[in-house]
Amino acid sequence: MPPKQSNPSGSDQNNSEISSHLLAAINGAFESQVAPLHEELKAVKEASSQIEQVGGRMNNLESMFAKFLQIHAEKQPEAPPHIPIRGTSDGFGKKGATSARLILDTPPLENPIKSPDDFKKCKEGKGSDHNSFGYKCNLPRLDFPSFDGSDVLTWEEDSEFYFEVFQTPEIYKTRLAATHFVGDARDWYRRFKLNKPDPPWLVLVEEVKDRFGTIDSDNPLEQFRKVIHIGKMEDYIKNFEKVKARLINTTKIQNEFYLYGFLSGLREELRHTVEMCGPNCLNQAYRFARQAELSLECQEKWGRMLLKSAASFPNKFDRPRDIPGKKPLQFYPPRPALPPPANFNNLTREQMRQLRLCYYCGEKYTQNHRCQKRKILLLEAIESSGTEEVDLIDQQLREQFDIDTEEVEHADISVCRPQDQCGTQTLKFKGTVQHLPIIALIDSGSTHSFIHPSVVSLVQLQPSPSPPIIVKTASGSKLLSDLKCDALKFNLQQHEFEGDLRVLEVQGYDLILGMDWIAKVGPMMIDCVKGLVQLSKDGHNIQLQVQGEVAEVKLFQGSINVNQEIQKGSDIIIAHLFLAKAEFTPTASVNHNILLAFQTVVNQFGIVFSDPPSLPPHRLIDHQIPHTANSPPVNLRPYRFSHFQKIEIEKIVEELLQSGYIRASTSPFASPILLVKKKDQSWRLCVDYRKLNDNTVKNKFSIPIIDDLLDKLKGARIFTKIDLKSGYHRIRMHPPDIHKTAFRIHLGHYEYTVMPFGLTNAPATFQALMNSIFKPYLRKFILVFFDDILIYSPSVEEHVHHLTVALQVLQDNQLFAKLSKCDIGVSKVEYLGHIISEEGVATDPSKIEGILNWPIPKSVRQLRGFLGLTGYYRKFVKDYGVISRPLTDLLKKDAFKWTQEAESAFSKLQQAMCVAHVLALPDFTKPFIIETYASQYGIGAVLMQGKRPLAFLSKSLGIKNQSLSTYEKELLALVTVVTKWRHYLLGGPFIIRTDHISLKNLLEQRINTAMQHKSLSKLLGLQYTIEYKKGSTNVVADALSRKDNDTLQLSSSSTSENYMVSELIPQWVNELQESYQDDKWIKRLRRQLLEGHSRNNIISKHQGLLRYKGRICVGQAHGWREKLLHELHGSNLGGHSGALVTYKRVKSLFYWPSVKQHVMDHIKHCDICQITKPEHVPTPGLLQPLPIPQEA
C-alpha cells in the first residue's frame, strides 16, 4: 500500500490566512496607538510654522532697524556696534519725545517649543519673566533725568538707576546723558566735548562733579553731619532720608549710627522728649518726633491764646468819687516811655510801622508776635594793666590764707550771672564726670579751667594742693583756689576729654573750661547760628551741640512786674499759693553731707546696681511645679502674631538665649506666649501658663498684709525704697521641673532655666526667698513685699547703717536692683500705692487721678474695677460704705441699671477720694480710742490716737438690720468695729465712745437677748472702757453712718473738741457770727427760717451760720464785709484781680445785699489798682477851635 502524501498547497493557504489575520490585528493596534501621535505631530508642525512666520517678521524688523542704525551712523563720527534692540517707542520721532521703553541685549531667537508639553504651556501663556517666545517682558515708562547744573548727586543717582533698569551699555551712557543736558550744563558740555569728544561715563561724572559739584559732593558723611532740624519735622525727615541713602551707597555703617544722627539733629526742645521714648529704630524715632512736634505746637497755641485773653481783659474802672473822711488818692504823672531800641537797617520808627516790623527785633510783626532773639548786653570796664594790678589784690584775702604776694598767680573768669535776667546763649554742654551728670561751660574769657567743689565731693576725687591763685570774676569779686585735679577725665556729649581743673566755687556751672583747655583741643570753630562747636581730638574733628537755654521761673508779688512781663511776651501762670505748714529746712551743708553719705554707700555696692553677670546660683528655695495626679502634659498650639511682633519676639528670645535664661527644649509640654507692652513702650515676653496652673498643686505660703506692714512704720523719718531688677529671673528652676516651663514660638521650642512670670506659685516662692534672706531684719528696719523693699529709720545715721546692711544682703545673695527706680534717703516715698512720710500714710495721687478720670461704667465688670480701686483706699475715706451702697447694689445678679442715684453715688465717691485723710501710724505704746455711731442706713466708726485718725470704717445696713432697734444697731456697730480692729486692741486697754447712753453700762446690764449673748462673747478677753459722748459732739462717727440727705441739725454750742482733722476752717469764718449782731437783714432771715417761710430751703442754718442758697451770709457789724473783700481781693490770695473775677470769687462763698456794687466800690477805691493798672481809653483826637457864638 503506497504511503500517504501531504498537501502543501493547503498548508500554505492556511499560513497565509493566519498571517493576514495577524497583520490586520497588528495594523489595527498600531493605528490605534499611532493616531494620537499623528495628532500631536500635526499640532507641532502648525506651531512650528507659526514660529517661523513670527521669526521672519522679527528678522524683517531687525533688518529695518539695522538700516536705521546705518543711516544714523553716517551722521556720527563713530558708528556704534550693531545691537539688537526690541521694544516700543512712545512718541518716537516726535518733537519733545524724551523717553522710550526699550529692552537691550535681546537673547537669540530660538524655538521654545520642543515637546507637546511646551506647546501646551505656550498656548496657556504660562511662564515667569518671559513670554511665549522667550523674550523679556516690557518695562514701564521711565524718563531719563535732565541736568541743568544743580544737585549733581541726585542727577548721578537717577542716571545710574535708569542705566540699571534698562541695562544700558557703557557706550550709550555718555551720549544718552549728554542729550538731556539743559541750561548751563548744555553750554558747558559743548565746550567740554571739543577736548574729549566721547568720554567714558565715569570720566563724565567726575568732570561734572568738578564743574558743578559743591564742597561736600564727594563727602556724604559731611553732608550727613550737617543735616539738622530747622523747619518742619517732615522736611527734616525728608532731607535726612535723602542724605542717608547717599551714605548707604558709599559706606557700610550700622543702623545705630543713623538713629544717633537723627536724634542729634533734632531741635533741643524736641530731642530730649524723643530720647525719653527710647526709639529702637528710625521709624520709631520718626513717629515719636512727629508726636513731640505736634505736642509742642499745641502748647505754643494754648500759650498764645492765654496771653491774648490776659492782654484783652478789662482791668480799669472810673476814677473814684471823693468820699468824706477818706484820704484822697494821690495820682502820679505817667512814667516816660522807654526809648526805642537800636534801629534796623537805618529805618525810622514810622518806616518800621509801615513795613509792619517789630521795633525790637526787626522781624515781621503779627498779632501774637514774640521776639525770638532777645539780647542782654553786659558791659565790663577794662582796667589798666601793669603794676597797679598787684595793688588790686585784696589784702585781707592774702592775710586770711597766709599767702605770699610774690607766689600768687592771677586768673580771670568772665562768668557773671545777672539776677532776674536770662542771658544770651552760651557755650554750655551736658556731660558726666564718673557717671555724675554735670553742666560744663566753655569760656574763652577764663584763663584757667575750674571744677565745682560739690562735684569733687560727690565723685570722691582727691585733689592735690597747688600754688594758690586769686580769680577775679566779671562781677568784680575775687575767689581763691588752692586745689587742683590733674588729668581729670570727663565726657561731653559722649566724647571723652581730659584737663587740669582747679577747684573753685563758681555759680551756675559744674565745669568751666578756659583758655588752657581750649588750647589743647584747638583750633576751635563756632557756628553761632546752628549752635555747633568743632574741636580737635586725637587728630579727628568733633562737633558739640550747644545746650539750649533753660526756661526761668520768676515769682512776682503785685501786678506791676506782671504787666511788664506780659508786654514783653513772657508766659505768665497765675496761681494761688497756700502755706499749710511751716517746716524747718536744713542748711545746704547738711543736705550736702547727707547726699555724700548715701552716695558713698551706693558707690560701695555698685555691683548691686549693675546688670547680672551670670545665672543665679541654685539655692534651697528653687521653684518647683508639683503636678496633680494623672494630669497629662500641657501641649497647646501657639498664638498667631503680626510680622512686627515676630521681630520683637526674635529679639527677646535671642537675648534670653544669650543670658542663659532659656534653652532649646524637647519637652512634651508646650504653652503659648504673649507680648505685653511696658510703660516705656518696650515689650515683655510672657508665657500663658493658665492650663499648666490648673494642673499644679497650689502653694499656701502666707503673703504679707499691706496694712500690717504699714503699721510698723511709726517713728520712721528717713526711707529708702529698692526695686529689684528681674527679680523672678534670679531664682533657678528645680531641675526636674524645667521641662514643664516649655513654650513654643515660630522659631522653635524652648524652656526656662530660671523662674518665669505667670506660674501660679511664683509669688509664694519669691516671697519665701525674700523672707529667708532678710529674716533677721524684718519689721525692725526692713519691710519686704515681693520685689519692693522698704528700709526705714528714725535718723540719717541709722539709715546709712541700715542701707549698708540691706545692700550687703542683696550682694551676698546675687540679687540686683535698678537704680533709676530706687528712692534713697528720702523723707517721703511711694510704697505699695501709699505715700509714706513722718506724718503718716496718705493715698497715692496718681491712683486718685485714675479714679477721677474713670469713665462712667457701662457694665458690671467696669463697675467692679472702679469699686476695687476705690475699695483699696476705703480706710482713708469716711462714709465710704454708705456712699458706695447704690453702686454695690448694682453688682447683684441682673441688677445693673445705671440710674440717677448711681450717677450721684459715683460722683460723690470720686469727690470723697479727693479729700482723703492723711492717716497717722499706730503707736502701740499708747491707748486706742474708738468712736462709733449707728443710724437708720448704716454704721460708722473711727480709730484714733491723740485726736488723729488711724482708720475709718463705714458699712451700710441691709434690710434685715435696718429693722433693728436703736440699741441693737448701736451694739452691732460696737461689735463690728471691735472685730475689725481686734489686732490693734489686743494686749492693752482701749476706750469705746458711743452716743447711746444705755451702752455705757453694758457690762453691768442683765443679759436677756441672744444678740447680747453673741456680742459679749466677742468682747471677752479685751480691756475696754465704754464712755458716753453726746451725739452733737461725735461728728466724725456720726457722719460715717449717715447719708448726705439726712437732715441732722448740729448744735451751735459745740465744744472746742473737733475731730474733722481734714477740714481747714479759717478762724475768721467762725468769727462771722459776730457780724450778725444788730443786723436787721440777718434778723429778718432768722425770722423767716423759724416761721418756715423759706421756699425750697433757700435759707438754711449750719453750725451756727446762716446760708442763702448754700452761701454764708455776712452781716454789717464789725466791718466783716470790708475784711472779706480785702482778703479776697488785696491779699496774696486775691492778687488784686479785676472786678469780675473778684465778684465771682466772693459770690461763690458769701452773700449779702448789693454784694456786686460793694465789690465795684471797693476796687474803685483800691490805691494799688488805680496806680498800677493802665487805663484803656482811646487816644483823644486833634484839638478844634470853639464855635463862634451866634450872639455876643
Automatic annotation (TrEMBL):
Keywords: DNA integration, Endonuclease, Hydrolase, Magnesium, Multifunctional enzyme, Nuclease, Nucleotidyltransferase, Protease, RNA-binding, RNA-directed DNA polymerase, Transferase
UniProt xrefs under PROSITE patterns: ASP_PROTEASE (PS00141), RT_POL (PS50878)
SUPFAM superfamilies registered for this protein in UniProt: Acid proteases, DNA/RNA polymerases
Molecular-function annotations in GO: aspartic-type endopeptidase activity; endonuclease activity; RNA binding; RNA-directed DNA polymerase activity
GO BP of this protein: DNA integration; proteolysis
Lineage top rank: taxon: Eukaryota
Domain Reverse transcriptase: 657-836
Claim: RNA-binding is one of the keywords in the record: yes
Protein name: Reverse transcriptase domain-containing protein
Organism listed in the record: Rhynchospora breviuscula
